[in-house]
Amino acid sequence: MNKTNFYASLLAILVIGGITASFIYQNLSQRPQYSEIKVAKGTIEEALNINGSIRPQEEVALGFELGGKITKLPYAVGNFVKSGTVLAYTNATDLNAQYKQALYLAKSAEANLDQYHELYKKQKAVLDSLKKSATANSADKKAQKEQIDASKAQIEAQEETISAAYANVENAKAQIAKTMIVAPFDGIISTQDLKVGEVPQAGISIITLISQNDYKIEAFVSQIDVKKIEVGDSAKITLDNGASDTYDAKISAIDPAENDINGVPNYKVTFNFSENTSGLRSGLGANISLFIQSKSDTLVIPKDAVFMENDKAYVFVLVNGLREKKEIQTGIQGSDGMVEVLSGLNAGDSIYELAK
Fold first, then answer.
1. What pLDDT is stored for residue 107 in this prediction?
2. Taking residues 104-126, what's their average pLDDT?
3. Which residue among 244, 259, 293 closes a domain?
4. Which of 90, 134, 285, 342 could form a disulfide with 240 if both were Cys (CB 3.0 to 4.6 A apart)?
């Protein structure tokens, strides 16, 4: 073999050897790395971790009961308003005229009633005078009494007229109220989907009002987990806004009817904060940790030491210096990354945890 072929062959062997060594190194470096730990007894707390969102305690979508052109919008999105404040008006010119006419007729009917009462008093006075007169005969007295009865009937009829007149007044007022949107509680205008001059349809929501600095949390819990919780359970809350603050809350309601989410029954759970919630905003994501139960003096191991095969739980144990797979039965999972071992291991056993 000449020198050229020799060096070429040597170079090829070196290249192939380098590639092989690199492959072996990468393969070994990518294998899971384990650390040996001792099984011990301890305390474990199970928590249910779910996600939810911040919602205002009160929220209402408002619209007009009667259609019409918008004439006035005194407030804008973000404004705080008191309960009873008129948030929007439509044209009520004709209805206002009807109200004034109805009120005028009612007042006129009342004035006529006053006159009928005066006439009734005078007629009674005449009858009293006839009764005292020695010259008055029974026919005069009877005629006067008939006039009094007629006046009394007239008064009763006029009172019915007044009642009907004021019913018309109230009806006119009710119609005018339908041309206004009124705040049902103290709150903040969160949406306002209209402008002056526009003509919204009756019954269409155009303004949303939410309570101020008074929030709750809404979350959905699976049909499997909902049986683990009940109203009054405590929870710890953190928010998806980057802040490190933790809030205390309690379950205030669990909906009895399910909500279908991606084909799976879930139940809406409402949490009330146990502290001041000023500074929060509607729509913020909430991370909820619900304490379920606690066990002490029980075997616990890291969750990373457990792996599943065919719906069975296993760990690697050290037996006579060799690593062997062993089936175990697990219990509750702790919020700290630990898991309870019900059977398959004893305190002091050596197992392997996937290195972090």
1. 92
2. 87
3. 293
4. 285
Other C-beta atoms closer than 10 Å to the C-beta of 294 total 13
Q: Judging by beta carbons within 10 Å of its beta carbon (0-12, 13-18, 19+), is residue 348 exposed, middle or buried?
A: exposed
Residues 287 and 306 in one domain: no
* Enclosing domain of residue 235: 48-57+211-293
In eight-state DSSP terms, residue 132 is H
Residue 173 maps to a domain = yes
The pLDDT assigned to 28 comes to 40
Quickly count: other Cβ atoms within 10 Å of residue 300's Cβ. Answer: 20
Strands (E), the chain: 34-38, 40-56, 59-62, 70-72, 80-81, 86-90, 180-182, 187-192, 207-210, 215-222, 234-239, 247-254, 259-261, 264-273, 285-302, 307-309, 312-319, 322-333, 338-343, 350-354
Using CA atoms, how far apart are residues 129 and 74, in angstroms rounded to an integer?
65
The SS3 call for residue 148 is helix
**C-alpha torsion angle, residues 324, 325, 327, 331 (rounded to 10):** 100
Per-residue pLDDT at 352 exceeds 80: yes
Residue 214's identity, in one-letter code, is D
Let me know if residue 285 belongs to a domain. yes
The CATH number covering residue 287 comes to: 2.40.30.170
Work out the pLDDT band at 267, boundaries 50, 70, 90: very high
Backbone angles phi, psi at 173, to 5 degrees: -65, -40
Question: Any idea which residue has 């690697």 for tokens?
Answer: 316
pLDDT band at 25; cut points 50, 70, 90: very low
C-beta of residue 167 within 8 angstroms of C-beta of residue 104: no
> Residue 129: inside a domain, yes or no?
yes
pLDDT tens digits for range 298-331: 999 999 899 999 989 999 998 887 889 999 999 9
